[in-house]
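dumping this here before i forget
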Amino acid sequence: MGLVYSPSAEPDSLLGKILGGPGQTSLRAGFGTFYTAIEALTIGVLAANAPYGTTYTSPTPPLFATPFISASTGQGSQYFPVQLAPLNSSASHPDPNVDWSQYEPISGLPAYPTTNRIPYTEEYMFSIQRQLSPNTVFSASYVGTQGHRLLALVEANPGTPALCLFLSNPANLKLESPPQTPCGPFLEGNAYITASNQTINGTRAPLGANFGSDTNQATIGNSNYNALEVTLRHTSGRLEVLAGYTYSKSLDQASNLGEEINPLNPALSKALSAFDVKHNFVVSYNYQLPIDPLFRASNRWTKGWSVSGITRFSSGFPVTLYNYGDNSLLGTEPNGVNNFGVDEPQYTPGALALNHNPRNSQSYFDTSLFSLQPLGQPGNAKRRFFYGPGIDNYDAALLKSVSLTESKSLQFRFEGFNIFNHAQFYGPASVNGNINSSSFGEVVSAAAPRLMQAAVKFIF
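structure:
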């Protein structure tokens, strides 16, 4: 739904001077709800799930003749030939002939809950556009988007941190020879015997010990985006200029399917979007060079010369913090779809002391404020809460158009990108946010250096 209105007022009044003459100001507003479909590949990943899966990833180097048997240990089960499910098999009428022991513990493959719903967004905008002069137009807009039921990964069988903490104390375990290994990171699936002789088959729930770390591809994600967009367009004679500025903020719980959501409290995963750019100012221009009046000649050699370019100043992408550990004791292990679990570093509030000159080879932020979190806690740092290095870039081109016929022409282009060869430490992964890495906090990549190219375009 959209609305357009062109207001007017008495020319001599204050409002009349703000709005200009008839037709010089327009107001626009719009709202829409948009639904999307679940990608077929998302559901296709489930084709590998036991017991009728058609793909298999061996955890160890296999034998060629028996690819399900480990070459080093000789252990494993030969799944092929695959036995197809009886025609009447369903969740309410399972196949009783499946030997599930050869698949247990079932782990590593995602599931698609039958309770999933179609993702959708609500988008809205309001803008005011004002003609400042016959050749100049100014516009300012507010744009917002709310995303609901977004597809995200969430652990379906997380460990119970409190139980694992209890079992991490040797005093709570039965004395045996050799001694039991206390519960700890990545040990949620082990069996334990307590001092009271109670057997606990792992700390995972609600699926239990027959399942390991399994993720649901669930439509539980949310996002929101809000922005102020300002543009100014001016044309006069040989010059065309378009300037635009955007001040925006985007939040979500997962910016892609590889980012898992906290299974106990999804709100803890809400952070800046990986693609969020807070400030973005861009100017593009085209100027037709006055070669013909300079040489007092108008022909195909003096006409058609122009200079164009794009200049951009923007803040950087947020720094994504990673923690490949499992101090949370949730056991949210990567499975090929999610790139990492839900653990985050522990953050001590303080000045980040961002390094605005990464050329000095110093850390981009104060890494002493970050550490591994205590056992049983997911870490209090947001996945993203501050920004990496920005960009100030200049692209330019010299163009020469030669008319061949009334409808055909050649355009010779000499283009330069990052023409001042300014080091741009810009990009979504330019700063290493992995706290388990020796280069944590360092700037590890940069955008392309100066590039020059020549081209010919045939226009018809």
